[in-house]
Amino acid sequence: MATQSSSGTQPPNFLLRYWRGEGELWKVFWLYGVLASTVLACLYAAAIYAGNLAAAQLLLPLLLVYTAWIVISVWRCAPNVGWDFYTHLSRGLTIAWALNVIFALLGLQMDLLAVYAGPPA
């Protein structure tokens, strides 16, 4: 169950509410985590496919910041369920998610740098 902030009212926006761990786990995990991450990944793929390297480059730091927010939000909202199994499962998946994103973003950045550098002389 979601909790309220110390002042007794919910934070004014969902970003802050989930950042503080005051939202529902299912919503932050599935909607803001899985669904939104999929949309951002599709935007990145579309930018690469269209040859828009500037958009692709701008999306990488956005993905990194978004991932930091979602990982922390999922971690903090994890206890907001009725069964401890889901708390531990979501936290374990969040660690794997964070590691995957870090390595994927590093690889994508290296690919972009290779494109910027051009073919070997």
Question: Number of domains in the coordinates?
Answer: 1
Annotation, overall tally of beta strands: 0
Q: What shape does the CA trace take?
A: elongated
Strand content: under 5%
The mean pLDDT is 91
Q: What low-confidence regions span 5 or more consecutive residues with pLDDT below 50?
A: none
Structural class: mainly alpha
Q: Care to give the gist of this entry?
A:
The protein is mostly helical and 121 residues long. 74% of the residues lie in helices and 0% in strands. The protein has one domain (22-115).
Describe the structure.
With 121 residues, this protein is an all-alpha fold. It has one domain. It is built from four helices and no strands. The chain has helices at 14-19, 25-49, 53-77, 84-117. Helix 2 packs antiparallel against helix 3 and helix 3 packs antiparallel against helix 4. It is elongated, with a radius of gyration of 17 Å. The protein starts with 13 loop residues before the first helix and ends with a helix. The model has no long low-confidence stretch (mean pLDDT 91).
Task: Itemize the secondary structure elements and their pairings.
Blueprint: H1 14-19, H2 25-49, H3 53-77, H4 84-117
Helix pairs in contact: 2-3, 3-4
Key features of this structure:
121 residues, mainly alpha, 4 helices, 74% helix, elongated
